[in-house]
Amino acid sequence: AIVFPLQKLERYLAPGTDTARFRLFQPGLAALQRAEALFRSDRGHPIDYVSSAVRMEHAPPPALPEVCFIGRSNVGKSSLIRALFSLAPEVEIRVSKTPGHTKKMNFFKVGKFFTLVDMPGYGYRAPQDFVEMVEAYLQERHNLKRTFLLVDGVVGLQKTDHIAVEMLEEFGIPYVMVLTKIDRASRGLLLKNVLEIQEFVKENTQGCFPQLFLVSSVEFSGVHLLRCFVAHVTGNLPTVEAR
Predict the structure, then answer these.
(1) pTM above 0.70, yes or no
(2) What pLDDT sits at residue 95?
(3) For the EngB-type G domain, which residue ranges apply (predicted)?
């Protein structure tokens, strides 16, 4: 249940409900261990904050495969990135109680394997030049392998999330939706939001990976699976069970 929180919900579905999209990405133990090793820093494999940028000319060279995390202000993005990097405690991810704390694109280098980018939040307290910054990044960053669009698991898709989806679809950017804060949602509410978002993805998107990823930065649910998917899309898991 910690690794595959989505499948824990299956027993509460009506008989005959299609759950194929619950398990499109099902890595085995070896793949999960490989991903965990990638996210664990050591002397020969440093995980470092590289730099911050508000314009693309200030971004580090696009030398490695890259993933970015984007979402509404207060969706729990910084908390999730801190959970992903929990095996590299020297990496400082500032988590603020004030929404909209991230004002720049923050780049983190994971050894020689990939770069992870923490993008500013959209909506409430978004940076003034948010649209220009993010649109330029998405259109120009040719080493970007996948965008992780974070959605609050308690409130589901909001109007600002729909705008983000439209932007990703317009630019033809491959992305995946991640439901955060699942520890705060009741089982019924979480299941309702999961099914509604899955239906939305099926009916209204072209570039979104059909499987949702559920995470709790507090209970650590889904973090191992998300690490594994990041390793997979950046080309660092040569053999993994994924359709």
Answers:
(1) yes
(2) 56
(3) 63-236
